[in-house]
Amino acid sequence: MGTLSHVMRLTVSILVTLLITSKSVEGKKNVLVFIGDDAGFLQSAYNNTVCQTPNLDKLAARSLTFTQGYTSVSSCSPSRSVLLSGIPQHQNGMYGLRHIPHHFVSFDDVRSLPLVLASHGIRTGLIGKKHVGPPEVYKFDYERSTDQYINDQIGRNITFMHGFVKEFLQAKDDRPFFLYIGFYDSHRTRPQDIETFGPFHNLWGTGKPGMGLIKDWTPQVYNPDDVIVPYFLPDNDVTRRDIAAMYTSFGRMDQGIGLFLSELEKAGYLDDTLIMFTADNGIAFPNAKTNLYEPGMGEPMMISTPQNKHSWGQFSDALASTMDFTPTILDWFGVPYPDYALNGLKVSLTGRSLLPLTSSHLGAEQDFSVVYSSHDFHEVTMPYPMRVLRQGQYRLIHNLNNRMPYPLASDLFYSPTYMEILNRTKAGIPTKWFKTLQQYYYRDEWELFDLTFDPEELHNLAYEPSHADVLSGMKKKLIEWQWQTNDPWVCMPHGVLILGQCYPMLNEPAK
Length: 511
What we know:
Keywords: Signal. InterPro entries: Alkaline_phosphatase_core_sf (IPR017850), SGSH_C (IPR032506), Sulfatase_N (IPR000917). Belongs to the sulfatase family. Residues 1-27 form the signal peptide. The chain is α/β, with parallel strands linked by helices. Helices cover 31% and strands 17% of the residues. The protein contains 16 helices and 17 strands. Helix 7 (158-169) packs parallel to helix 9. The protein starts with a helix and ends in a 7-residue tail after the last strand. Mean pLDDT is 93; it is low at 1-26.
């Protein structure tokens, strides 16, 4: 009897354990974030009928897709720092690119998303491109990143990345998880490697002699005659070849997303994981990357929640931002934002959770009528701070250093598309571009565009009396946000900030 009693107790104990475990797994919430590098609107969900993106198409079919998703800053490291902290780059301190010789990092006291989640018992992981610092601020429990591996291996080799994704998802750890996967596609190739690997590293990993083989990637090669040339680029053979190469690189990311989502499903997490997809900034072409016009600020953005399947396959016109990712993820986990100060000012999130948009479209989009962006540097040699408010049909840009010519990121300068514009301009040959180089380089301090009637943003309304009231109202709102986020540039370019007040410098140009 004693033995039977022991067996019964053991059996009951096992059943209880299984029930508890089952309930725990069933109620668990996880997050998976994909972020592309210089990735644009190339998937079918954004009406690109040429670039083949079957895996992003599948994700879109189970996501809410944003038609007006925006980056918080059109530069790699600063953008990623905002997504992972919830606060703008001028507040978190990552004013430009992290790596040598640029050397920008966030302030030591920033409470990043991985730190906040870890303090609430959530397992954190990063696979792929990181490009933010310092390590103590952006610390993940599990990290296989560009801090440890060659960029192309950990960010483009989807087979290499897959091993780490599998390792993370199959770990014997019952905690909910946050997994952040950063691709290096579709970033441009370094200038010294373009001839060998193609302008978007599109030849690397193809299995051809000297290229190595990414066994999980089936390269897609495009005819330049078939690609879609966006309005902000010149339509010529050089640009078309450039875009075709980008499509191939983008397709490698798409196949990686499919591979990793399959691994998520195999691990049993597909039905309890919030999945988000976006990019850091616009595509690596003129008028896009590093700019805060529509092509540089606009980003692909999707959010898939297993709790609100009625939002799958739907589209939202809400103005959403990468600044909304941190509050969304905290909302998903039910984790409060920490109460802390940074540089003497209490930190509060100005982004919003996107989850209400997935549960109901009745009035929810009205709360997403404005979005802000903030840019200071890309490379350290590119001081061109901008503050932007996108509201309704208007975009307001404040160019704080507009008296200098707009600086060019090195990868944009050596791109075939830009070199063609430069050489044609030098030779006095028509560029077939929608702007001249002079218009691109020299900008008004204030730029106000009506995107409904001027989607190409060529007609600046900031100095037209008919839009004085619009300009005044948007200026006021933008400056209020700058004060709220402790912006060191809030008094620029005509004043200096001292002890919380702006003092005029009387530096207007002579008339």
